[in-house]
Amino acid sequence: MSVVFRNLVLVGLCAAFQGCALTEGLIRSALAKGATQDGLQTGVWTYWYENGNKKAQGEYDGDRQIGPWTYWHPNGALEWQGTFAENRLHGPSTFFFDTGRPRARGEYRDGFEEGLWRFWDSEGNVATEGDFFAGRAGLRWTYFAEDGRIRAEGYRHRGEKVGIWQFWDDDQTLYERAYPVPEGLEVVNEAWDGGGVRREGLVENGKKIGRWLTYHRNGQRRAIGNFVDGLASGKWFFYSPRGELLAKGELLFGRPSGRWDFRVGSGFERATGTALPPPPSHRGSFSSDEWSESTPLEKVALTWVAEASTGVDGVVDQTPTAGVAGPPQGLELATDLVPIIPLRRQPWTVSEQASMDYLVTRYRDGEAAAKPPPGSRYGKRAKAVSVDAPPSKGDLALSVPLMNKPLPHTRFYNELGQPVDLDDLKGEKFVVLVVLRGFAREICVYCVTQTEALAQSVEAFGELDSEIFVVYPGEGNRLEAFLKAFEAQTEIFGEIPIGTLYDPDLALVTKMNIEDELAIPSTFILDRDGIVRYAYVGTSIEDRPPAKDLLEAIEAMVPAER
């Protein structure tokens, strides 16, 4: 283990917790306070900055964050309030600037942004609002000027702009830009007869896909839900004209399924979806607000599903308006990126700290050289796919198709937020590309220790004319959060002497078919022509090849060049 790593982690962090080898009891220090049971953190934990201000507070259950948590800025101002379920962000969340003003507000579902999010500038003005689906921006997005006027508006599909976007400058001059629309995709925006949006969503090859919204006449959302292959499926939510949640439930291929909840007074009454009738036949017109307020909620919700499911009208014309110029560069650039959500990682747990030495050794020298700590929960490592040594274990179905081909995507961002293209190294070096689990809101202990193991082997890789890169896949709007997490990682390890890259919107892992919520940990060695000659796709989050195996694989490739 490197001197920097040993000093900063095993001495500094363990001392902060008055001995991270403790397996149970109460841990108190100047930086943290909480209890452990069987080596895992439990109950309420509180963390402080070195200046004495609170940093974070919330509850653990077996090292997993649960329930409400609060984070603070170093100056004592609120930074974030939200909730966790099974260690994933779940439910409403609000982020704040260090001045106390709100920065972003919306909801998470199973760890990803979901539904309408609103963003403010540092002066307290609403800057942007739009929808997320499983962490990716979609449907209509609106950008505002400081005085509240609309500055730009258009649609996104899987994070990317699609179709006609409109822009307005300070003089309210209209500009337009047409962005590529995937083949077969259409944007639907229907209006009420008196004006205002009634229903909107996307159609692919004539069938509704993804999230669809219907609205009350006053502009409030009425029904929100998903379509799969033209049929209502997944979770649906239903709201009153005042924005109050009336009902929620699941549909499967157009019929109620799973659990449903209907508002009764200040609470909800549960129902079984299979006991509910199918949505009624559409009457030809959308129901009124007056009708919905005097009708049983079960009938209201299913009627609104029927309205959302009916044949589409109002397909948005994607023909640019004649005589309207494209927007000035600055106006367009301001809308290119989805607004940043400044997620913050959880503090290292006691058990993670106790396991770091073992994991670094394992990912550097191999499992036979590593002695796990007592009661280790870490599993066994499988073997790799290699040209010279076909494996007896490992995920062959995912690994083999990636061999003897160039990477399908080579552009990333480095730890400074600057673009990097691996094609620039063609003809010069071997490239070891390590795709880590990914970045949702933190860098996991496996990724951290694997990175340190590679860093400790960097001289050996350099002697074989090889350059190492670790890649963190994540959503495009989480680059700032990744850079903050990386900064925290370098505070532990010191400067990391290998390339660290961010793969926004999971561009690489999607094209390589190694996506699984984020990414399946995978390792590739590219020859000097940029061709994959070694592939290892892990079978679990901890299944990663040691640096020793990678060095041996490169050594076997070097004679083949001569």
Task: Explain this structure.
Helix 1 (3-16) runs antiparallel to helix 5. This protein has eleven helices and 33 strands. The chain folds into three domains: 64-181, Histone H3 K4-specific methyltransferase SET7/9 N-terminal domain (Single Sheet), CATH 2.20.110.10; 182-317, Histone H3 K4-specific methyltransferase SET7/9 N-terminal domain, CATH 2.20.110; 379-561, 3-Layer(aba) Sandwich (Glutaredoxin). It is an alpha+beta fold. The strands form four sheets. The chain has a 15-stranded antiparallel sheet that branches. It has an eight-stranded antiparallel sheet with strand order 16-17-18-19-20-21-22-23, with helices on one face. A hairpin with a 2-residue loop joins strand 2 (32-37) and strand 3.
Put the structure in a nutshell:
This protein is α+β, with helices and mostly antiparallel strands and 562 residues long. 20% of the residues lie in helices and 39% in strands.
Radius of gyration: 26 Å
CATH architecture of the largest domain: 3-Layer(aba) Sandwich
Number of helices, where a helix is a run of at least 4 consecutive DSSP H or I residues = 11
Q: What share of residues are in beta strands? A: 35-45%
Low-confidence stretches: 1-24, 379-383, 387-393
Number of domains: 3
